[in-house]
Amino acid sequence: MDRRNFCAAASALAFVSVCARAEAGYPTRPVRVISPYAAGGGPDVQLRQAGPSLGEVLGQPIVIENKVGAGGVLAAQYVAQQPADGYTLLMGSNTHIIQKAMRPDLRFDPVTDFAPVSNLVSSPTVLVVNADSPYRKLDDLIADAKARAGQMNYGSGGIGTSAHLAGATLVSLTGIQATHIPLKGSVEIAASLLRGDTQFAFPVAGTGIPQVKGGKLRALAVTSRERLKELPDVPTLHELLKNDLAIQESWFGIWAPAKTPDDIQLTLNAAVKKVTAAPSLRSAYEAVGNEATPSESPQAFAAFVRSETRKWTDIVRLAGAKGS
């Protein structure tokens, strides 16, 4: 090997060595997490509650950026195209699976375009109405919807969100006629109900319960498997309708672009597990009907995502929900 080739090879080896050391020291700069949800919405609040502690564990700031639109699709497509270096992550959720099930032509795949790192929190939705409405229980709402066929609206944070699918499921299982009104984000749901633009909605618990406790909204049912500690007198939708499709719990976790190195995934997973073990964060989540649900490993979360893909695809099909 001549001197020029030897120097080139040595330089390349040195570059690889430096990169390996930089990767081993991940992270060495702030990490961005893209939130598909409007600022102030339940999932966004949950992410921001965990963000500072996650940054402390990783030794670098967590910068949360909101990229709202198309039921989470815009954020997902953006992150899927970012470098797989662990510095741009997505708050991924079952909403992305729902979107893909409703719109197979979408330019992203929640299974193949991402490396699932860890789940973060799980949350049911809450069937709510304006606190001043005449509806005291689900039967009241159904009776009025049937009496005023086609005149009732339900709102959500966008097509394919958990709130949309829960509403579509209720319509399908009860045989009522109601029009879906996709709003700009989940934070708009309460305002829409208070204005009278919509008559019922299914915000996630983190968004809905504070509004219920604040006296603005009234809860008629929850989509969890069991009643919530924060709303012990509110029945589950499964209790009322006797159908397993009524059990719908949303989840929100950390996704990285596909091909993100295993060691980075493991570092992030360990950080999420440490942060969610803190009693203060668990209590904050539980106060609004949520549960910290970290994954044991990236592989375990990936298996969970595959299982949830099958489940939500079935729910989308049976509920007749379609994207536009």
Written account of the structure:
With 324 residues, this protein is α/β, with parallel strands linked by helices. The chain has 2 domains: 28-123 and 250-319, Bordetella uptake gene, domain 1 (D-Maltodextrin-Binding Protein, domain 2); 126-246, Periplasmic binding protein-like II (D-Maltodextrin-Binding Protein, domain 2, 3-Layer(aba) Sandwich). Helix content is 45%, strand content 19%. It contains 12 helices and 11 strands. Strands 2-1-3-10-4-11 form a 6-stranded mixed β-sheet, with helices on both faces. A 3-stranded parallel β-sheet has the order 7-6-8, with helices on both faces. Helix 4 (94-102) packs across helix 12. 47% of the residues are buried. The model is unreliable at 1-22 (pLDDT under 50).
Q: How many alpha or pi helices? A: 12
Major sheet summary line: 6 strands, mixed
What is the CATH topology descriptor of the largest domain? D-Maltodextrin-Binding Protein, domain 2
State the order of secondary-structure elements, H for helix, E for strand. Answer: HEHEHEHEEHEHEHEHEHEHHEH
Low-pLDDT residue spans? 1-22
Radius of gyration: 22 Å
How many structural units, i.e. domains?
2
- Assign the CATH superfamily of the largest domain: Bordetella uptake gene, domain 1
User: Helix fraction?
Assistant: 40-55%
